[in-house]
Structure formats: C-alpha cells, structure tokens
Amino acid sequence: MTTIDHCNQPGLRPYLDAKQEMLNQLDKVSKCELVGLEQLLNRILADDIHSPIDVPSFANSAMDGYALSASTLVADTPLTLIGASLAGHPFTGRVAAGECVRIMTGAALPLGADSVVMQENCHLDAQLVSVSGTVTSGQNVRFPAEDLAQGELVFSAGTRINARVLAVLSSLGLEQLYVYRPLTVALLSTGDELRSPGQLLGPGDIYDSNRIALRAMLHSLGVKVIDYGIIKDQPDLIRQALVKAASETDAIITSGGVSVGDADYIKQILEEVGRIGFWKLAIKPGKPFAFGQINDCPFFGLPGNPVSAAVTFHLLVRPALAKLAGETLAAPVTLPAKTLMAFKKTPGRMDFQRAIVSTQADGSLGVIAAGAQSSGVFSAMAQANCLLHLEQDRGDVAEGERVTLELIDGLYW
Ligand SMILES: Nc1nc2c(c(=O)[nH]1)N[C@H]1C(S)=C(S)[C@@H](COP(=O)(O)OP(=O)(O)OC[C@H]3O[C@@H](n4cnc5c(N)ncnc54)[C@H](O)[C@@H]3O)O[C@H]1N2
Ligand code: MOO
C-alpha cells in the first residue's frame, strides 16, 4: 500500500531531463596550462596522451630464474651458466645452445634467450643448471610494447588524473603536461539559524554542516573554493553576495532558502539578478534544487536539508562541474541487489535512498536502509555506502525485491 505524498506535486521535472537540459546549457570554462608531474594529481588532461615509447621498451624477465633458448633445450642435459642479467645491469653477451644466464625480475632478456625458467624449477650445481618440467618459448618473458606501444592513445583529453593515471604518465617519462585550470567555485550557506562549528548556539540555531561538507567534496574534486560563509536571510545581503560571486568565480553553489518559505529568497533573487533554468525536480531528496545563471556564471541552488544538499551535489552539481572543467565523466555504474528489508517509497519522485550494501553468503548483494530516510538525517548519509535508485513512478519496495544501487563509497565524499 502506498500513501499519498502531498510533497509530490504534478509538474515536477524528471531528473534525467533536468540534468540533460542543464548540461546542454553549460560549456567548458577552463583554459589549459602546462603543469609539472608533481602537481598533476586531480587535474584534468587537456590533451590526448599518446605513448612516446614502447612500454616495456625491451624484453625482460617476469621471474627470478634462468634465461635460455627453449628451442635448443635438450632433455636431461644441464646448461652451462655463463653470466647474469640484473635489472639495470643487462648481460652483454649472447646465450647459445646449451647455455643459460642467471636473470632477475625486470632484467633485460639476453640475446639468444627466448624464455625464463623460474629458479624454483632449476637446480644449480657447480655452474651447471638442470631444468625440470617443460619450457615453452616466451615463457616468463615480458615483451616490448606488451603494455603500451609507441604512438598508442593512452588517455584521452578529459581524463581526471588519479594516482593510477599518474603512475602510467610517469612510466612514459612525461614530466609536464597540459591540463585544465582548476575551477574556482563560490560557496555560501543561507540561513539566520546557522552558526559555524565552534560558535555558541542560541535558541533555534543549528550548526552549518552543508558548507563544510560541500567544501570538502569540492576540495576532493580539485576545485578551488571561495567561501562566502553564512549569509543571513536578508535579500540585500544574498543579492550582493551572488552578484559579487558571479564576477569572481566559475560557478556559484548555495545551500538553503530555495523552497517556498517566508525566508526562502534564493529563487526570487536569481530571477532578479540572473535567470532561472529550472526549479523543482521530481527527486527525493532534493526537490527544490534550482539551476540558473547570473551573468553567464552557472548557479546551483541546493536545498538546505543536509541530505538533499549532498545528494543534489552528487546528482547534478558534480556532472555540471565536470562539464565546466573539461572532464569526461562516465555514467554512474549501477548494480543489482536484493532488498533485505522493505523500503517505503511514494510514487511521484525518483528516490535516492541511503543504504548499506553487503555481499551475502551466496555471493549476491543484499541491501538494507542506512537509517531514517528523512532529508535532515545526515548520520544515515554518513553510514551509507550506496544510494538506492528507486524509479519515479514506483511505490513501496518489498523485502526480497531486486533493486538498483549506486556505490558511493570511495567517491569524493
Ligand atoms: N511548503 C513546502 N515546504 C517545503 C517544501 C515544499 O515543497 N513545500 N519542500 C521541502 C523540501 S523537499 C526541502 S528539501 C526543503 C528545502 O528547503 P530550503 O532549501 O528552503 O532550505 P531551508 O528552509 O533553508 O532549510 C531546510 C532545513 O535545512 C537546514 N539547513 C539549512 N542550511 C543548512 C546548513 N548549511 N547546514 C545544515 N542544515 C541546514 C535548515 O535549518 C532546515 O532545517 O524545504 C521543504 N519545505
Ligand atoms: O526534497 Mo526534500 O530534499 O525531500 O527534503
């Protein structure tokens, strides 16, 4: 049985439509700059990267053992050890039939050798090496260009440089690259009730957690944040802050004041000093999210409820920032899972419920709620490792139903 949700007015904009409309209105703003390897973490590549070299650039051993020519090996005939090849110290001679060379992992394969036998399968006695088992040509050899060939496209422009990408760039010997300038984003909270952590709370006051959470998410994404702090619910102050922010930054993110309350001024001010792209989406949490522009500066008005602010940042602001920054963002990966309990869901809005997924004894994924699903309960957001994606028109979810989820562990938040 589903109940009527009076918050689900008709005419709310479906999530994917709104997201696409928003992305269509945004262009890359970032210029590129040449940056040294040490500073590349979390930056976005401005150029395609083609490998300047073969990786590896020479045939080398994947094991510690003995290098030999498999085709000339004679059963039960020991090989004469004629030298050693160590990483960084190649053997300069040639391996002939009946000979072998001691070789270490990563060392160059000597001329004449085509395979390596790991030392556990060899017996050394007075410079004679007996090999047990069969040996095939190419065994335990890492061939030139096996990883990357010279000229091959390694990363496309738009790739975010994480530690793994950085490792590959380093392995190519690249020390400076063109990347996009980091975005500068204005961040502000609105609300008379808000105090910064560390301040005393008066009656009806709460701590401003949205700005702290959003700032942390932005920093994780490599965005420069200009923190405009807490702005009181006074239209003049909000207007001033927004106009100033629009002249100083690449995008503006606010939280609070986007709904229909007597002190919710964001939408009205956005209409005065800029233009509204859309307001109110068929999503839960995050219904009153507002998107617009002030003098070409994109504006994202996040709802004040802390879960709504975090979830709309992820669903809408994150892809928008990627577009502005020149980053190619893959579509979110979703996984099927079985519910281990029932979930309440009212038709009308696409619901992103905070949940915990775990692997069950039979290897399948099982999911439970991370706690209460109210948009004010941020502790459940902090406990969650995934968001359940519950379609707009569906109702309650029964225990044992198959649902779709998006992992959020390990993301920027
Ligand atoms: N009559 C209606 N009322 C509401 C509707 C509606 O459609 N009709 N929508 C509800 C929904 S859904 C949401 S979400 C909220 C969003 O409201 P606002 O964006 O105007 O946010 P505020 O009213 O300013 O604050 C809501 C809530 O969040 C707390 N808050 C605000 N800022 C922060 C912050 N920086 N850190 C932590 N907590 C914050 C604030 O104290 C309120 O409790 O509107 C519903 N109402
Ligand atoms: O959409 Mo509000 O974010 O449900 O609480």
TrEMBL record:
Biological process annotations from GO: Mo-molybdopterin cofactor biosynthetic process
Cofactor(s) of this protein: Mg(2+)
Alphabetized PANTHER family for the sequence: GEPHYRIN, MOLYBDOPTERIN BIOSYNTHESIS PROTEIN
SUPFAM superfamilies linked: MoeA C-terminal domain-like, MoeA N-terminal region -like, Molybdenum cofactor biosynthesis proteins
Name used for this protein in its record: Molybdopterin molybdenumtransferase
NCBIfam families found in the cross-reference section: Glp_gephyrin, molyb_syn
Entry GO terms, CC: cytosol
The EC number(s) this enzyme carries: 2.10.1.1
Domain of life per record: Bacteria
Pathway(s) this gene product operates in, as recorded in its UniProt entry: Cofactor biosynthesis; molybdopterin biosynthesis
Catalytic activity: adenylyl-molybdopterin + molybdate = Mo-molybdopterin + AMP + H(+)
Function: Catalyzes the insertion of molybdate into adenylated molybdopterin with the concomitant release of AMP.
UniProt-listed PROSITE patterns: MOCF_BIOSYNTHESIS_2
Top EC class, one word: transferase
GO molecular function: metal ion binding; molybdopterin molybdotransferase activity
Entry's family note: Belongs to the MoeA family.
